[in-house]
């Protein structure tokens, strides 16, 4: 059986933080942020909210299950990509399992930063293809505002809070994920990282070498998409839609240019959500679906880069 996406669900807080709002918080301007990142606003959870990453994930999962026409008891596994878990352990996926009542499911987390959803989708497809599972929830859930240094203008302008989920289930062998490729390079771990509350060797917060991230993202992601397509017997021109991790509009445009893809074949919504890490690809998929840009038989690639550095690509027939 093929591992197909049967339903997509998202969640984000209603509270919006615009670039104009950020001008009052740090030394930056709307023009500077927009020209360099393409971001105009992001959804941010209010500081006094009691919601956690598992709540975001549960809301998105419920929406995805409703779209897929399945009930919690139908879920065999839950894989949550996340970099700011509710607790060190148990997994955020376990809290989501309890909140949605998926009593028959196993649950675990994946930590691959912004590439987490692509990694989790690969795992889910293998579980379904092997016959071990019929339905797997793949979730990216992030409340990045809780871990940012809001005095660091290099990072606080980039990120937003959101969750996205898909129900992956059994389908025809020629549909769903056809091939996935994953790659990591731990020698670049200092390029992008997050120190936790009890960090060793540095203060808490997100740290990023923007130039190196840009270089790695454009070079590695475009190469990975191209090689994944080639391994499956396709060329970039065969792609109907490219759904990239929404990090920065300049990165998205540069990857599309390297692959020779016109704008109508690339989903971009970073201007309204910012970088939502592992949640960005399901957010973009949800938007593409709502716009009628995902049609049966389309060749679609999901691709992302994240801290590690880590890269991944899922090639699927919609």
Topology:
Blueprint: E1 2-11, E2 16-18, H1 19-23, H2 30-37, E3 41-43, H3 53-68, E4 77-81, H4 92-100, E5 106-110, H5 116-129, E6 135-143, E7 161-171, E8 176-184, E9 192-195, E10 205-208, H6 210-231, E11 241-244, H7 249-259, H8 270-273, H9 280-290, E12 299-306, E13 310-317
Parallel strand pairs: 4-5, 4-6, 11-12
Antiparallel strand pairs: 1-7, 2-3, 6-7, 8-13, 9-10, 12-13
Helix pairs in contact: 3-4, 6-7
Structure at a glance:
The chain is of the alpha/beta class and 318 residues long. It is 31% helix and 26% strand. The chain is globular.
Structural features:
318 residues; alpha/beta; Peroxisomal Thiolase, Chain A, domain 1; 2 domains; 5-stranded mixed β-sheet; 4-stranded mixed β-sheet; 9 helices; 13 strands; globular
Structure description:
- The strands form four sheets. The chain has a five-stranded mixed sheet with strand order 1-7-6-4-5, with helices on both faces. Strands 8-13-12-11 form a four-stranded mixed sheet, sandwiched between helices.
- Helix 3 (53-68) crosses helix 4 (92-100).
- The protein is an alpha/beta fold and 318 residues long.
- It has two domains: 2-171, 3-Layer(aba) Sandwich (Peroxisomal Thiolase, Chain A, domain 1), CATH 3.40.47.10; 176-317, Thiolase/Chalcone synthase (Peroxisomal Thiolase, Chain A, domain 1, 3-Layer(aba) Sandwich), CATH 3.40.47.
- It is built from nine helices and 13 strands.
- The longest helix has 22 residues, at 210-231.
């Amino acid at each position: 059986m093929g591992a197909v996406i049967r339903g997509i669900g998202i969640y984000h807080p209603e509270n919006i933080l615009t670039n104009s709002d950020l001008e009052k918080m740090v030394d930056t301007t709307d023009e500077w942020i927009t020209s360099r990142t393409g971001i105009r606003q992001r959804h941010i959870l209010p500081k006094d909210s009691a919601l956690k990453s598992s709540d975001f994930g549960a809301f998105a999962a419920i929406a995805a299950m409703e779209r897929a026409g399945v009930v919690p008891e139908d879920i065999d596994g839950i894989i949550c990509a996340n970099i700011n878990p509710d607790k060190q352990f148990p997994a955020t996926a376990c809290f989501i399992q309890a909140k949605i009542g998926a009593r028959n499911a196993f649950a675990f987390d994946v930590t691959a930063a912004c590439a987490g959803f692509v990694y989790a989708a690969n795992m889910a497809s293998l579980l379904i293809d092997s016959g071990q599972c019929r339905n797997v929830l793949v979730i990216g859930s992030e409340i990045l505002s809780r871990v940012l240094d809001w005095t660091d203008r290099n990072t606080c302008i980039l990120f937003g809070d959101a969750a996205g989920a898909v129900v992956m289930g059994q389908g025809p062998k020629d549909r769903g994920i056809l091939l996935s490729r994953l790659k990591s390079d731990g020698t670049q771990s200092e390029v992008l990282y997050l120190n936790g509350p009890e960090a060793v060797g540095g203060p808490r917060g997100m740290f990023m070498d923007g130039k190196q991230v840009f270089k790695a993202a454009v070079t590695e992601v475009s190469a990975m998409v191209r090689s994944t397509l080639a391994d499956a017997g396709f060329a970039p021109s065969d792609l109907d839609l490219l759904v990239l991790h929404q990090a920065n509009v300049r990165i998205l445009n540069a990857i599309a240019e390297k692959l020779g893809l016109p704008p109508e074949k690339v989903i971009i919504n970073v201007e309204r959500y910012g970088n939502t890490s592992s949640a960005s690809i399901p957010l973009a998929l949800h938007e593409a679906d709502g716009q009628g840009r995902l049609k049966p038989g389309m060749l679609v690639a999901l691709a992302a880069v994240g801290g590690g550095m880590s890269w991944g690509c899922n090639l699927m027939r919609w």
